[in-house]
Amino acid sequence: MRRRLKIVALAVLLLSLFGWLVQAGIGVSPSLIFATVTEAHNSFYTTVSNTGEDALKISAYAAGMSHNLIGGINIKEGKEDLEKVTRVFSLDPKEFVLEAGEVQEVKITVNIAEAKKIGPSGGAYAEILFEARPLESKGGQVTNVARIGVPTLVTLPGPKELTGKITQVSVEQAKPGDKVQINIRFRNTGNTHYTPKGGTVVIRDETGSQVAKIPVETHVVMPGLERRLTASWSPKELPVGTYTVEATVGIVEGEVTPAMSAAFGVVEPYKVAQPSGGIINFAPPKADKNKPIEFKLLFSNRGNVDLTPKGEIRVEDSREKVIATIPIAAQEEIVPGSSAEMSAVLEGGLPTGEYTAIAELRYGKPEYGGVKVAQARIEFEVAEKEIVTAGEIVEFTVPSVKSGEPIVPHLLIKNTGNTDFEVEGLIELKNSAGKSVGQIPIPKTPVAVGETKALGQPWEGTLPVGLYKAVASLILGGEKMLTAETSFMVKQ
Hints:
By secondary structure, the chain is mainly β. The protein has 4 domains: about 10-155, Sandwich (Immunoglobulin-like); about 165-270, Immunoglobulins (Immunoglobulin-like, Sandwich); about 275-380, Immunoglobulins (Immunoglobulin-like); about 390-490, Immunoglobulin-like (Sandwich). The protein has 2 helices and 37 strands. It has helices at about 80-90, 110-120; strands at about 1-5, 20-25, 25-30, 35, 45-50, 55-65, 75, 90, 95-100, 100-110, 125-135, 145-155, 165-170, 180-190, 200-205, 210-215, 225-235, 240-250, 255, 260-270, 270, 275-280, 285-290, 295-300, 310-315, 320-330, 340-345, 355-365, 370-385, 390-395, 400, 410-415, 420-430, 435-445, 450-455, 465-475, 480-490. Strands 1, 2, 3, 5, 8 and 10 form a 6-stranded antiparallel beta sheet that branches. The radius of gyration is 33 Å and the shape is extended.
């Protein structure tokens, strides 16, 4: 069914953050589909509009769908996902042309028997995608393809299992004095999508006295997935102390989940403790056979309270068997907004081979909402012999030139160690007063064991007549420094 409209009015329906209704000349209504099908009536419709000025070719197809914690859609277009969803959802028409201002109804049919085989038995889910491209290209321009996805949640006939549970409760505050937000992770353990029937958060102080009772804001949750539900509290007063929150979520009228509790601390009036941190650098160590190995990492405090992380580094062999555990702890408290290096030594070393190290640090306090964990992993190799990164500058000269001629340094470096390395650096040109008058960068250059490499490149700048000095500064393997200097003349 196709018709021309002068005005196209579309309503926006959102499950949460589910994208745009109109994009680059194509519109779809509704933008979110909730449908109930039966054996006798297993189809429904959506409408596609050309809101632009040029004719469009439209392609329609179904993809798999899930959602994340905040309700954003995850489109699943892997081969297996597409095969499953096309066995359940069929579209008619799949391809069509719309002139400017035209609309087209697309019929969506659900194969109920196939949907129940795939599961969950109470619902079927798809992202119905519409791709639009110009019917005719203009003067060799690149064709723009617009794509709109319509989340589609279908209730199937048969028994409905409406069950769920809270998996986590946490408390956050953007900054002191702001509202306190209670985050509840809710998992739908049933066989179809539904919106929980509200919920309640009770907040108590250290004496157990109730200081607030707050309703929970709920959203649609698909089966087998988790969704973040929230409750906001703007207290008239919030003195220092430890508080607890107890959350329940309503499944259906008269039935709620088992309660889950969490603690949070107020470290200053109206300031909720927000411990947050992470391992921002965990570099592979240099390791020689049966010699002590030092592991180093950098821990960053991203919260608003002092942290003293501690934990261990586990070392696994190539078969993922833990062969060593080394304790590691910060030497002093790490203040908010700062980082600190932490280290641990495996005294006995390891045999030659390939290994994995997993650093796991615990930080925070029960009264600050519980102990949190930061984790990082690296792979490293233990060498048969000691790795020596070494080199020498075997020649560094700059021939004298006439004024206006390019300056061409001759810089040779030899790898005198037992491992390949990369060298990089700079040649700085200075006048007789020691002032820098030019620079020649030396890009990263690989140098194999025993190899001698020529570095440097011509400098096209112009220098007045006089005596000059060139200073070469090289970094080997990202750690060792070599320097050399030479003099040259610029003649008339």
